[in-house]
Amino acid sequence: MNPCKMKRKSVLLFLLISIYSCSIDNKKNKQILDENSSIEILENSKKEKTSMLEKIQDELIIINELLDKKNNLTNTISVSRLIIKPEALNHFIDFQGTVKSDKNIIVFPEMNGILKHIYVKEGQKVKKGQLLAESSNEVLKIKLEQLILRNNLLKTTFERNEKLWEKNIGSEIEYLRSKTEYLSSTKNIKELEKQIEKTKFYAQFSGTIDEIFSKIGSNINAGLTPILRLINLDQIYVESEIPEKHILNIKEGSKVIISLFNSEKINSKITKVGNHINPSNRSFKVRIDIEESKDFFKPNMSCRIKINDYSSDNSILIPVNNILEDSNGEFYVYKIVQENDFESLKSIKTPVITGKSIGNKIEIIKGLKINDQIVQDGLRLIKNNQNIKIIK
Hints:
The chain has helices spanning about 5-30, 40-75, 140-165, 170-195; strands at about 75-80, 80-85, 85-100, 105, 115-120, 125, 130-135, 200, 205-210, 220, 230, 235-245, 255-260, 265-270, 270-275, 285-290, 300-320, 325, 330-340, 345-350, 355-360, 360-365, 375, 385-390. By secondary structure, it is an alpha+beta fold.
């Protein structure tokens, strides 16, 4: 038989006996108490009955408390607990990035012509100032030779007139004319030499010939026909566009983990944060310089970057599964509290405010403190103010 039912039957039996005793006493008193009874007798009888009633009520209170305690112990649910300890939290946000290089150029001609020479091959390393290719310039060179011959004659004429003028011989007009013609010819030579130089393509920096686009003998147009690509991977970086909502949490020096498609991961940091918000997509740019494992990176390669936007050495982290949500959308946990009057434990519904999440854990900003204990396993079996027992 159920122990609770047996206890309740005992209480009922006790009450029946008490009532029966009272009824017997009442019958006896009816024989004694009547209209002729004195006030003193009636007062004494009243006190006696009142005392008996109070005694029964006190006993009922004790019995009910014992029954409640027994019932609670019977309804105790076994749960496991989690003791809150401080943990380090490093939260990262994930974005798409693109590998770029400051030294990655395509060489274009400055003058129309025919590509005459290519002095390098794809993959060849070159030094700054090295001649890479050259377009046709024979006509310009012939014209330059003619200008030089004429310039030599003009120079001789000018120097002779200058000496005569110093001796006050000849006219000033002849002297000035010869000087002007000589200086103009010299200037024309320099201009033509610059044009000839524009037919030659030099390396703007030391690097590698990545690709040759044009072939010898092909027509090339100024600013339109690509000749070759020169690249230097010594200074490569990753660029990413970040939504503006993160601008307060991302700074220069923030830690970054770069993940490549070959599962290689590189640790770095943000070296520059853009000061301009792109109005078309409400984002700002960040730059992450690559200092190691540069061989893994190629310009225009896509990669994933994780930026550390929040860190704490003493965070309260609990498994996401230990948090429940009520009908109002508020989160809560069951804190384990020990009763003061006896050693039983109770589960107390405790509202919490959550913060950052990492993996299967979430940060608790408010509602719990270090060394608090919460229910871990058995959440779905308990309720607020539930008697519980801790299992190891």
